[in-house]
């Protein structure tokens, strides 16, 4: 027995020694100090503990050297210090007393986590030290750290064995600090569990409200401050079930009363008095449903708490939850009201009733506005269904009546309702305008756009008209009708508004036939913002309705009227006019561009640019950008117009790159025009050159045919010049060569100086000589015909083949008629009329055989067929006849052509 007890004692002592050794290793740390050079200096190794600092009641970190138990570090833990945990084994902070950074490097991560948890607990308790009795005592040095950690996690008797909360302490004044600690110090899992316990306890909020009332009656400010923190903590739990309890009609006023005692606000707030005395619930139409009224009150209180009481305390997650509650309440209210058919009908019946007072009607319009605005909380399908139902009930008739009111507030509400409808389904409003007659809603919108309702109202009217006439969203039968109504009845009125607001300068006035809005409105001073919005609307129309706007501008001279804005004193209106002209030109419409040039419509823009001088502003940039666009888009008509019309005044701005490039573009156009004019020649000149080229080619072949014919060839070369001198006045040629002259003899190689005598008709002995010459000449003719046929083939390939046969026939007919006319007018000349016959007669007379003559005719026919398709040959037929006639002189037996 003694031996066994000794062994158990030794084992127990060994276990205690092991636990102590393990605890020692968990406490073992190294102390580091940040030196001036940015390096960490090792201050020694020791054991760390959290205990009261000697001579004070404050807790701090103490590190004793593991060798000689000297103190390496004493640090007082405060709520102002910022501690950082790094890599699970390092805790660092800035020591204000040492004015440097300190760090503890733990041997084990468990010890680091233990010390880190204690530091966090101490700082949290210091922040809520005014609650009292919330202190975390020091751990005894002899207590093992692992055991201390287990006790720390289970020191709350309300936790279960696994660390989960089993229940909350009873809601009593003495337990409020402990409840606050549980709510504020728990993690996410603990907070979820606490929220479940609170919602399950049906006596939690009644008891809390009872304690608040008692403390308020006793004026116990300390406890009231603690209740304020407790209520704030409950809201920050961000639990929907708790929100339902807090914002219920039973507890909401007491909860708001508890939030009046903010310890950081010196004066007490009077939120309950404001909600009771100043907030009045107005019912334009009595709401019979109790649940709807309750939802409306709850929604208002949530918004008041979110926006007035706790705006600087709520975190993002809680704020999002409160907004979601408001959204859901709105959807629920609108859904219940829209399903009540009797309520909607009663609403519109009262708004149409003539017996309703002005104030009541105003409240009804504002209620309708709020009703339509809150409908955005519904799903899209339900929104569309609601707006269609309202349209069927006659909401647009109500809005038409509202827009004629003098009360700006309800006019603004009416325009807001229209924008909501247009954003949902624009065709609902378009179909109503198309079916409406007389003083249409569209006319009221146009008139409201130029009426001074305030800056915000102008933008609303502009937005409504834009959406109505947006061609990209239009569909169905109303696509063209709504645009036609606007252009026929209202566009001229908007243009006249601009023209009447500027000083007149010889602007032709065109009588407008527009209807729907009073066109005889007196000229009055209109706010510049209104003119700007009108100009913006016109730019929108130019982009979306180019054909309609072009017709109107070309007929009514509207562009010049709009450009009168350049004479306004307000620079932003001048810039708007430049932007309008830029939009016009950007359409690249030929008719509009010619209209601009014809009426010199760029002159106001250029004058405004010159008047602006060297000031670098929007006007300066806008005009330069306009000129740059004209240059880059190669709008030649405008480039020439601007330079030739305004270069005298634009020359002083040539230092700008845009102006230089614009002038260079003009010079390039001019050089290109000169090049084209010099390159183009009349058709008659081309034909003459072609005929000359053909003559030169024929002479070239004649000269290369045979060296024997050089002498006769020279003689033949002068023959056309001699024969061409005799012409009649009508242009027909007359052949003045003598008939008695026979064929010219060619030089023979044997006798170069031989000159045969003139031929005598009664000497038959000389008939053989022409036959001999003809044989030589036939060789030349065959060679010339062959070469000329090849030349004709080459020429035909170069001629354009796309000329229509109709044109060829027309030209041929014209030439033949002209030839017949010449033959009729010319006197009969035996010499000219029988040239071809005479030549053939000579050949026959000199015994030219028929076979050779037939081959000659076939070659001639082939040559004519080869060139018959060419329009140039047809056009120059009469001239070629003259040339061929001149070529068939005594030096040739027959025509090569």
Description:
The structure is a single chain. The chain is mainly α and 897 residues long. The protein has 40 helices and 7 strands. The protein is 62% helix and 5% strand. The N and C termini lie far apart (156 Å).
Topology, element by element:
Blueprint: H1 2-27, E1 28-34, E2 40-52, E3 59-65, E4 71-76, E5 84-86, E6 90-95, E7 100-106, H2 109-127, H3 145-153, H4 176-185, H5 188-200, H6 204-218, H7 221-236, H8 240-246, H9 252-258, H10 271-277, H11 290-309, H12 316-338, H13 341-352, H14 358-374, H15 380-392, H16 395-403, H17 408-424, H18 426-435, H19 441-449, H20 455-468, H21 478-489, H22 491-500, H23 528-544, H24 546-556, H25 558-562, H26 571-586, H27 590-598, H28 603-612, H29 618-632, H30 636-650, H31 657-679, H32 683-705, H33 710-723, H34 768-798, H35 805-825, H36 830-833, H37 835-845, H38 850-866, H39 871-875, H40 877-887
Antiparallel strand pairs: 1-2, 1-7, 2-3, 3-4, 5-6, 6-7
